[in-house]
Amino acid sequence: MKISANGIQLEIEDHGSPQGEPLLLIMGLGMQLVAWHEDFVESLVQRGFRVIRFDNRDIGLSENFDRFGAPKLGLDMLRFAIGMRVSSPYTLADMAADSVGILDALGIPKAHICGASMGGMIAQQIAVRHPDRVKSLTLMMTSTGARKLPGPSMKVRGAMLGRPKDPANVESVIAHYVELYRLIGSPGYPPADGYVRSRLQLSVRRSYRPAGTARQMVAIAADGDRSPLVAQIRVPAQIIHGAADPLVPLAAGRDLAAKIPDAELDVIEGMGHDLPVALWPRFVAGIATAAGRA
């Protein structure tokens, strides 16, 4: 369903009992709410959570920002690489305000927050800028953005910036994403045959907005180093990170855990930059652990 939050229209889904512990799931770069698999959501509902998943601005069925045009991504990434300021049409702080706007619209005073990848960066902004709205924090495969941290390999970086051979052809778009997820997925938890393709097919047929993904990427670059901010976080925090993550290397998870007071770190061997089905019970347990400490 569509709701008005922070002055824009966002697509959300609300799962579980209204009396459950509210849990807001925030997805990563270019990813839609369906990237939180419905069975994973149901397992959280069974643990007593009221689970809200949503499309971030500029992605999925939420409001687009096409009026700003497509960014010059190569130039922006070059500016970022050499330490120059990057400007973006909106910020991760704006996206954090979107999340808080969802809680406002649903009448939820405080919630547990779980963010994956870019969603974890947005979650950091929520915990710092809106601390009274956060019960606990689970940060999955994400980073403070500190410049000293290692980044993705050149091969992964190239795949992230690449485009489908035929952007107008659905099968070409799906094949492009299948290859990307082959590169960044979990070597220790390979998916069942056809699983990745079926999930990506669901996503692409629901919505395909590459310009929105590019604008989100620029917003990440513009956000800079959040290290001074995360030191201010005072809620229970669970850091979940894969030891084999080729996009956001493990050093980023260790850095987060060192900078957030009283954070707990769960390093998962063989996990890359995805959410393998076999690890769902561990993810659910981590979210519940953080919630239990609240």
Topology, please?
Layout (H helix, E strand, L loop, with lengths): L1 E4 L2 E8 L5 E6 L11 H9 L2 E6 L18 H9 L10 H15 L4 E6 L1 H12 L4 E7 L13 H8 L8 H15 L10 H12 L3 H14 L3 H4 L6 E6 L7 H10 L3 E6 L11 H14 L1
Parallel strand pairs: 3-4, 3-5, 5-6, 6-7, 7-8
Antiparallel strand pairs: 1-2, 2-4
Descriptors:
globular; 41% helix; single chain; 8 strands; 17% strand; alpha/beta; 294 residues; Rossmann fold; eight-stranded mixed sheet
Polypeptide structure, described:
The protein is α/β, with parallel strands linked by helices. 41% of the residues lie in helices and 17% in strands. The chain has an eight-stranded mixed beta sheet, sandwiched between helices. Helix 2 runs parallel beside helix 8. The radius of gyration is 18 Å and the shape is globular.
Sheet with the most strands: spatial strand order: 1-2-4-3-5-6-7-8
Query: How would you state the average pLDDT, rounded?
Result: 95
For the largest beta-sheet, the strand count, sense and barrel status come to:
8 strands, mixed
CATH topology, by name, is: Rossmann fold
Strand content: 15-25%
What CATH architecture would you give?
3-Layer(aba) Sandwich
Q: How far from one another are the termini?
A: 30 Å
- What's the overall geometry? globular
CATH superfamily descriptor: Alpha/Beta hydrolase fold, catalytic domain
Short description:
The protein is α/β, with parallel strands linked by helices and 294 residues long. Helix content is 41%, strand content 17%. It has an 8-stranded mixed beta sheet, sandwiched between helices.
